[in-house]
Amino acid sequence: MQDRTAGRQTELPTTDTLAPEALGTGARDGTRYLRDDGNWALPAGGSSTPAQIELFTTSGTWTKPAGARIVHVRVWGAGGGGGSGRVSTVSENRYGGGGGGGGSYNEYFFPAAALNATEDILIGAGGSAGNGQSLNGSNGAAGTSGGNTTFGSWLTSMGGVGGTAGTTTPSTQVNGGSGFMPGGSGGGGAAGVSSYYGGGGGGAGGGVSTSGTTPPYAGGRGAMIRTTVLSAGGGGAAGTNAGASYAARVAPAATSRSTQHLSGDGGGGGGSTTLAQDGAPGAAGGLPAGGGGGGSGSAGANSGAGGAGGGGMVVVVTYF
C-alpha cells in the first residue's frame, strides 16, 4: 500500500490565526458571542449598557433614562422618634421612653414602558424625639411618627410609630410601619423587634424600679436596672447601635446603611441610674428607616431625651 503522506509537510495554524479578534468581524467584547456567519453579536435581549443606580435621601424627581427596559424601585419609610423618660423622686418608679418603630419597606420591578417620563419622589422625614423632662413628677414626652415615602403613585412605604412617653409603668411597644415588609416594632416592655428589610425598632430607655426586683433587659430595650445597679443602654433592635450609658449621657452616632442599600439599625435606649443626675438619651435611628431609641428615666434631674428616627430612602435601579 502506498503511503500518500510521504514527503508532505503538515502546517499547524499559528497563534495569530486562532486569536478571537481574527475569528470574526465587527465589535467584540465580553458581552458578545461569535455567530455562525462570522460576526460578533449580542445575545438576544442583552445590553452592553451597565445598570444605572440612583439613590434619593431627599425629595426630588426621577427621570426615566432613554433605552430603559426594567426599573427596580426600592422604598423605605422613615423611622419613628423615641420617647423621653419620666422624672420622679426616688420613692417612685421612673421608666424610660419607648423606642420608635422602624419604617416599612416595599419594592417592585416595573416594565419601563409602564412608568411616566418623570416620577415624583417624596422622602419621609424621621420622627422627632421626645424632649427630656426636668420638672419632678413629670412623665416623658412621646416621639412622633416617621413620614411616609412614595415613588410616584406606584409605591408607598409607611413610617414607624413614635415611641411612647416614660411613666411609672413600663413603656409599651409600638408598631413599625406597615407595608409589604413592615418595620420592626419599637422597644417596650421587652426587646425591640428587628426587621430584615424594614427599619429596626428603637430600644426603650432604661428605668429604675423602687422595689429592686425589676430584672435587667438586653437587646433592643435599654437595660432595666435593680436599685443598686447601674446599666448601659441596650443594643439597637436590628443590630449593634447601643444606647448611651448613664455616666456618659451622650448617645452614639446612628448606624446608617444607606450606601449599602440596607435598612438602618434601631437606636439603642439610654441607660438608667439611681443617682440624682440627668438621664441618658436614646440613640438616633439609622438611615434609612431606623426607629429612635427611648430616653432613660431620672431621679430628680433631667430625664433622657429620645433619639430621632432615621429618614426614608428610595433606590432606583434601571436596566437597559
From TrEMBL:
UniProt domain Glycine-rich: residue ranges: 59-317
Basic and acidic residues bias (residue ranges): 29-38
Region of interest called Disordered, as start-end residue ranges on this chain: 1-49, 161-181, 255-306
UniProt feature, compositional bias: Polar residues: 7-17
InterPro entries: Gly_rich_dom
Compositionally biased intervals (Gly residues): 282-306
Pfam families referenced in this protein's UniProt entry, alphabetically: Gly_rich_2
Name assigned to this protein: Glycine-rich domain-containing protein
Originating species: Deinococcus arboris
